[in-house]
Amino acid sequence: MKKIFKYLGITSAMLLATAPIAAPVINSSTETFVQAETNGKSDVNKWLGEVKSTVNLTKNSSLITTEELDTYYVFGSDGMFFLYPQELTPEQNVLIEKGDSFFKHFNDNSNEDNLFFNFQYGVIMTATATDNSVSGNLIKDQVNELLSEGKSVTFHLSLRHTDETGAHSWDSFINEPVLGTKDVVVNPAKSETSNIKVPGTGISELFESSVNSTVYDDNGKATTITLPKTSVWNVDRQMNINGTTFYRVANNEWVKKDDGLAVTLNETTVNTNKQASLYTSQGKKVTNRALAKNTPWYSDRMATINGQTMYRVATDEWVMADDIK
């Protein structure tokens, strides 16, 4: 298993070779080592109580970033994460210089008591799918994938202490006694449209505009958009405003029902059984031409016009079903 530990963007090897940031503190007057003091059970319970049971992400929340991956994550199939307690709070943002950090929301540290804010305390955690849709401990990419799909992830935290001094990595804590545990459920960001009420009721129609149809918004206000005459549109909702029925052809885009008709796509050849009159999609009779008796005509759609089933044989010319074989 590959082990990587970074603090403030510096690898542990470099840290030991340069500045002794996590080394034992020197008392300047006595030049003796001041050892980390083991806190009592009451402090452990207090700290666990401050860690949130639930973290609700928002649309602006970060998932686990590559930068955090280098800092916190122990690579391997066991899917373990390692952090210091302060890195679960807003105080850790020195590690992530730009943008949000996923883990800092686990404890808002509202009391500002800095419990266990020293490098002899560490938090080992694993993550699992809250709904058990994925078995076993999750690796970083699985955590991000589940949250992106709208599913919750539960992190299982264990607070540990080591007597070792100096710079630490996860393996300084993994075999140490567990002082306390806490589960944190991270919920995905809610969809922005989840609370938006869509007007009207659901239907399923194909709508052909009989005129150049003005498009209206959800409130029935005319827009500058126009649907071309004889164009066909899928309709998924209808609404009524002041007695006028509107069909929805796109999000926040509606046309008046009376500006067209419902059609059924139906490619076929029709044959006239007599000289057949032609009609427009608005039901008006075409007076300057007709279809000759016993002639075949290609048709691509049918509709009910003037209470009669008709077949379209030209751009805006329809023949009655009674006039064909």
Automatic annotation (TrEMBL):
The keyword Ubl conjugation does not apply. It holds the Pfam family SlpA. Keywords: Signal. InterPro entries: SlpA_C_lactobacillus. It comes from the Bacteria. Residues 212-256, 272-321 form the S-layer protein C-terminal domain. Residues 1-22 form the signal peptide. Coiled coil: none annotated. This is S-layer protein C-terminal domain-containing protein. The keyword GTP-binding does not apply.
